# Entry
Amino acid sequence: MIFTVNSPADFHVHLRQGSISTLVTPHVRKGGFNLAYVMPNLTPPVTTTDQALEYKAQLEKIDPSVTYLMTLYLSPTLTPEEIRKAKEAGIVGVKSYPRGVTTNSDSGIESYEAYYPVFEAMQEVDMVLNLHGEIPSNAEHNTHILNAEPKFLPHLYALHAAFPKLRIVLEHATTRAAVEAVKACGPTVACTITAHHLALTVDDWAGQSFNFCKPVAKYPDDRAALREVIKEGHPRFFLGSDSAPHPMHKKSTSTPTSGCAAGVYTSPILLPLVATLLESFGAIGNLNDFVSNNGRAFYNQVVSEEIGSVQLRRVSGVAIAESYGSDPESVVPFWAGKTLDWEIVS
Amino acid sequence: MIFTVNSPADFHVHLRQGSISTLVTPHVRKGGFNLAYVMPNLTPPVTTTDQALEYKAQLEKIDPSVTYLMTLYLSPTLTPEEIRKAKEAGIVGVKSYPRGVTTNSDSGIESYEAYYPVFEAMQEVDMVLNLHGEIPSNAEHNTHILNAEPKFLPHLYALHAAFPKLRIVLEHATTRAAVEAVKACGPTVACTITAHHLALTVDDWAGQSFNFCKPVAKYPDDRAALREVIKEGHPRFFLGSDSAPHPMHKKSTSTPTSGCAAGVYTSPILLPLVATLLESFGAIGNLNDFVSNNGRAFYNQVVSEEIGSVQLRRVSGVAIAESYGSDPESVVPFWAGKTLDWEIVS
# Structure
């Protein structure tokens, strides 16, 4: 059985910098994708047009066969003028990280209202706002990593109300509440879903650091909501893998004083993985919409066979590699050692 | 400042077997305690009176200065006759593990009604039923490690209603729901609380395997409920450390296919740790009740200076050891590298 996917696009991916970037950037193509929407949380974060263009040039040097859509990191240095410059330069979005909730988010934002002039400019020039939708944990208010996303949703509603024409993407939704919130918003609000959040629940990352990521996978009912919204074919939900490579030693080991890195790495197996997952819950028929049509429509990106159609073949259990690269920077993919039911036809 | 604690008693502790037992059993005394209520989840589990007596003899050989109260592991081999024999032999309780929820629980129970004749005999001879109060995860019913305890509580109510005179201890409560359930029961139902669940929330074990245990630490509001019930001095709540040593390499490392061991090790620092925690939330005045009086009253164990009063001294930051023992079986204590505000006066 052969399944053809037109122009697969990953609308949320971490391609890092330095030697790990050289390793993982070609995995976008290896995983079946020819468009990568690139996150700006480098060290230091990508906060200017010039940095973003330089980063894009580095990625194109590593693998010129992929289209890289670039983003800026929302921070106090970002001005309406810089937004206009960024738009001119072809930069697509601005990513907002609440402070301290995930990898390299120390420069993240604390309150949105200070950024309203920036959002106003983004709405005007039609740039996309990408939201990491969690609020920081706070024991006094019973805010923790399991309810950090639902508690963020009032911010989503407020931003959408204040800037109804601003295109907003709630990134890597993990809860039923988030799915319902995005549905309740207008056509300018969309939502990415990762592959791994279609597979994991809290039980899977408890004591298992390779499955630990931010936002953490939630309860079975939340996973069910993510699966359902794909199955029903809602047009404003699409794939953003949040593929986030870390060297194996940072994932496998904790010390009593420091935990493991947050992030699940799916790039090199992404399209077969998504096909395997969608098939497992009866949504394989929506594969093209989920990994291409919906996201490309929202981002005004052409869907075309010429860009690159990818053929998937149904197989009986192809093993996933144990790791990619070599020590000390080898990276372990999600589901390492498990098997996939689909493979890309070379 | 000196604080005297009379007859500290740990009503839930794992003393293991073999060489790790030799290492950790003396830590009961080191941590300030002279009574240990010993869990039966060895390999194979302690299911008979003879096994329990043999295990007790092994522990007494390692450290004869501690009183060991022994328990049996509830399983289909346990009969009313064996209960009477156990009572005669001085065995105090029977521990129930739902199948598969924690370390060495593969022989745990699946349904309680089959055990009603055993419980009837326990009620008759006045043995204690110790409940690991979690139901197994089940995605279809949205049951996961965070709600496994609240979903167990109907079993507690049902057992208490069926056997109103049977003394029952809900072990290592971690949720507000469990605290309220135990309060709502009659005087034959009590509850242990660990030291580490007074410190941790879900944020602390996410990606940090040394803080991972079962039941997992829950939300800040649940931790607040545990603290409140100690602060209010409720007589049916008392310390059971659930101190559960694992070799460091089983705690520190995950592989993609297997996670780390569940368990937090507090024995060697237990009394100073509990004092530090209780002081942190304004309950140091209830230290004697929590670590001695309440539990001893429930278990009909004498409180007396002669058994051993322990003096604690207020200090400014005594460092906790990084580990105990030597490779490959060294064990890392809870809060390794952090400091305590109290120490035992030698």
In short: The interface with chain A takes residues 137, 139-140, 142-147, 201-203, 205-210, 212, 216, 219-221, 223, 251-262, 322, 332, 335-337 of chain B (CB under 8 Å). The CA atoms of residues 193 and 239 of chain B lie 5 Å apart. Residues 49-62 of chain B form the longest helix (14 residues).
